[in-house]
Amino acid sequence: MAMPRPAAQPTTGETKTMSRDSLTITDNRTGKTYELPITNGTIRAMDLRQIKADPGDFGMMSYDPAFTNTALCHSKITFIDGDKGVLQYRGYPIEELAERSSYLETAYLLLNGELPSKAQLEEWTYHVTQHTFIHESIKKFLDGFHYDAHPMGMMISAIGALSTFYADAKDIFNEASRRKQTWRLIGKMPTLAAFAYRHSLGMPYAYPDNDLSYPANFLNMLFKTTEAKYRANPVLERALDILFILHADHEQNCSANAMRCVGSSQVDPYSATAAATAALYGPLHGGANEEVLRMLLDIGSVSNVPAYIKRVKGGEKRLMGFGHRIYKNYDPRARIIKRMADEVFEVMGRNPLLNIALEVERIALEDDYFVTRKLYPNVDFYTGLIYQSMGFPVTMFPVLFAIPRTSGWIAQWQEMLLDAEQKIARPRQIYMGAAKRSYVPIEQRS
Ligand code: CMC
Questions:
Q1: Ligand 1 pocket residue status of 322, Cβ below 6 Å
Q2: Chunked in runs of 10, what are the mean pLDDT values of the chain (446 residues)?
Q3: What is the per-residue pLDDT for 5?
Q4: pLDDT value at position 19?
Q5: Ligand 1: does its nearest atom lie under 6 Å from the Cβ of 186?
Q6: 143 C-alpha to center of ligand 1: Å?
Q7: What is the dihedral of CA 244, 250, 251, 253, to 10 degrees?
Q8: Catalytic status, residue 135
Q9: I want to staple 404 with a disulfide (CB 3.0 to 4.6 A). Which of 111, 247, 312, 395 is the partner?
Q10: pLDDT in the model for residue 7
Q11: What SS3 state is found at 23?
């Protein structure tokens, strides 16, 4: 039997260890030792496959439900340091982008890797704006939904339906085609969202106004009534633009992973975006902003907060808008949003639920349960209060997340397509079911 080798070879006559970028594993079933290269702090899962108990063995796999410790890709798009509460798009801190950029400029940055020149930004804005209209048949399609249909359900269906209008979208390895679908998707998301909202109210659809900025046009399609030209309040227009910047990407989250996974089958980007939107809809992801507002309404008053926190600690409920897989510190987006809320409340009046939210945060940040688990407010904790003050019903909150996240999804999808190492996503399983057995006719079953 082979004896295990030491992980690091001692230098002659010394006990000093030599640093090597490798990992030595000893399989105690066989006594064999394997040296696996370490690159960027990572070993390749496929390098484990050589570790076998006997020659007929399939080889070692790693078991990682929910991908808590598995890197899926190399990426150059978004950087997060969860312990320090840092978020950067293409290297630019989120705080600087929120202060100085616009959503469309940020979307360009995510998709192209660099901030645009003035001419590039004009051209990009022109193309996105030229693609805000949707085919009249999509309007008819939206008309088919019941008046109280959840707008996220309508969005998932309508985005998927777009794929049937643009056959050229299947040409995913053609750069010009990808660019066109990108203009279309980013241009049409606000239109679909606004039309879903107007449908729920039974109001006629308001068409895009291409003279307006991206957020102002969205507000126009949502709230325009009889006026000849809709003029958005500049504070709300800027607030929405900042919220869009903050939601544009967040590396390998559940919906980005859905986008990459579904896209890896080489389906068109509308179908993959519909899948990503479905992933975002869930209450643990983009649906959390909706749940936060319902939770604050449920708490009802500041004096009820301690009792509610007690129920959370007892495992009866989750504190929505708190906690994050990656952030073990204050979510930097939540910090910006909390500051921004005051500007919106100055225009629209203070949201009465704010006091409850502040009390929840105050108690939670001092409580051992939340402190030891490093549970801090995330992006969704304060957004709902702003959206509600701006006049959005709660069901529209996740839609307001999906619109800007589209640029991040497309950036992730494109990076995946152009990565020579990527293939169709296909995880493994550990089969724990019944061993082979024979079919039993129904009359013989007990
Ligand atoms: N309230 C109460 N306890 C919580 C919460 C919470 N919001 N989040 C996590 N915990 C506890 C959890 O019970 C567990 O405790 P224990 O170790 O005793 O079992 C511990 O903290 C670790 O939680 P986890 O579920 O293993 O953590 P995760 O990384 O799998 O989940 C999360 C991350 C965001 C799904 C979770 O924190 C959560 O459900 N938060 C509420 C929903 C929410 O706000 N989602 C929005 C996320 S940010 C926007 C986005 O990207 O979509």
A1: yes
A2: 37 56 98 98 97 96 97 98 96 98 98 98 98 96 95 98 97 98 98 97 96 98 95 96 98 98 98 98 94 95 97 96 93 92 93 94 96 94 93 95 98 98 97 98 96
A3: 39
A4: 81
A5: no
A6: 37
A7: -120
A8: no
A9: 247
A10: 38
A11: strand
Task: Give the active site residue among 131, 199, 247, 285.
Answer: 285
Give nearest CA residue, ligand 1 atom 32: 324
With CA atoms as reference, report the closest residue to 237 among 222, 250, 226: 222
Six-digit token string for 84: 């320090």
- Whether residue 142 contacts residue 389, with contact meaning beta carbons closer than 8 Å, is answered with no
State the residue for tokens 């969202």.
193
The CA distance from 79 to 332, in Å, is 13
Distances (CA, A) of 248 to 89, 404, 446: 9, 5, 56
Token duo for residue 62: 């790693």
Q: What's the pLDDT at 16?
A: 53
Q: How far is the CA of 324 from the centre of ligand 1 (A)?
A: 6
Token pair listed for 440: 């039993």
The pTM (predicted TM-score) of the whole model is: 0.93
Res 11: pLDDT = 36
Cα–chain center distance at 32 = 42
- Predicted pLDDT at 17: 61
The residue whose CA is least distant from atom 28 of ligand 1 is 325
324 Cβ below 6 A of ligand 1: yes
Token pair listed for 334: 């939540």
> Are the C-beta atoms of residues 97 and 84 closer than 8 Å to each other?
no
Pick the atom of ligand 1 nearest to 369's CA. Answer: 3
Token pair in block for residue 24: 């030595």
380 classed as catalytic: yes
Contacting residues for 70 by C-beta, under 8 A, at least 6 apart: 45, 62, 64
Sign of torsion, CA 103 107 108 110?
A: positive
Residue of the nearest CA to atom 10 in ligand 1?
Answer: 323
Give the span between the Cα atoms of 341 and 308, in whole angstroms.
24
For ligand 1, say whether the CB of 379 is within 6 Å of any of its atoms.
yes
Determine the Cα–Cα distance for residues 246 and 336; give it in Å rounded to an integer.
9
Q: How far is the CA of 22 from the centre of ligand 1 (A)?
A: 34
